[in-house]
Specification:
Layout (H helix, E strand, L loop, with lengths): L1 E4 L2 E4 L5 H12 L9 E4 L3 H12 L4 E3 L8 E2 L15 E4 L6 E2 L8 E2 L12 E4 L8 H9 L4 E3 L1 H17 L5 H20 L8
């Protein structure tokens, strides 16, 4: 976006992926604070945003595969490093088709039941938004019903609000945007989730 720095007109880049992820976590699980451990599933560009968002919350980050970041890599999704704590925040940045709960599907990442610690309150974010109900979110619903689940469209809405405020310099009317988007594009997706949260995304 255009900006003035030292009397010179410049173009300044920004990233709202991490803000969308962080604000989705904060709004759906405000009591979670700085999680002791978090898990990122994937190894592409959006993972960097997820890791940055989690670090901004004060979390130690576990990743399935992310060779360039100062984080701990894990080989399987149910074994945590050095018997450390299980994650209370999980963010998936891979397409929904890349994950499965079917052990006979060799072409996708297997999501085991042990992925979730059902004894604690946590939050799971799936960046994929087609379909709205991904294998990860479906597993969370059955394996850890006390975990908050964040649809990919919710993250997109948080990103859009951050972009609006950056460009326009004023607060985004979040509820108006939410209502409009859901009515025109994502009514079916929200119905699959169950309800609209009147206090935020």
């Amino acid at each position: 976006m255009p900006a003035i720095e030292g009397g010179n007109r410049i173009l300044r880049g920004d990233n709202t992926d991490w803000l969308g992820i962080r604000e989705s976590i904060r709004s759906r699980a405000p009591s979670i604070g700085a999680p002791a451990a978090a898990l990122v599933i994937g190894a592409r560009g959006t993972d960097r945003a997820a890791i940055f968002a989690l670090q901004s919350l004060g979390s130690q980050v576990l990743v399935e595969a992310f060779p360039d970041a100062p984080v701990k890599l894990i080989e399987t999704l149910d074994v945590w490093p050095a018997e450390g704590p299980a994650p209370t925040v999980i963010v998936s940045t891979v397409p929904a088709s890349a994950t499965t709960t079917d052990s006979t599907n060799p072409g996708a990442v297997l999501l085991p039941l042990a992925l979730f610690d059902a004894t604690v309150n946590g939050v799971v974010v799936d960046m994929a938004y087609k379909p709205a109900e991904t294998p990860l979110l479906t597993l969370a619903k059955s394996a850890a019903p006390n975990w908050a689940r964040v649809l990919g469209v919710e993250v997109l809405l948080e990103q859009g609000c951050a972009q609006f405020e950056t460009w326009m310099g004023r607060r985004c009317p979040k509820h108006v945007v939410l209502k409009s988007v859901l009515e025109t594009c994502f009514a079916a997706a929200w119905a699959a989730k169950g309800k609209v949260d009147e206090d935020g995304l």
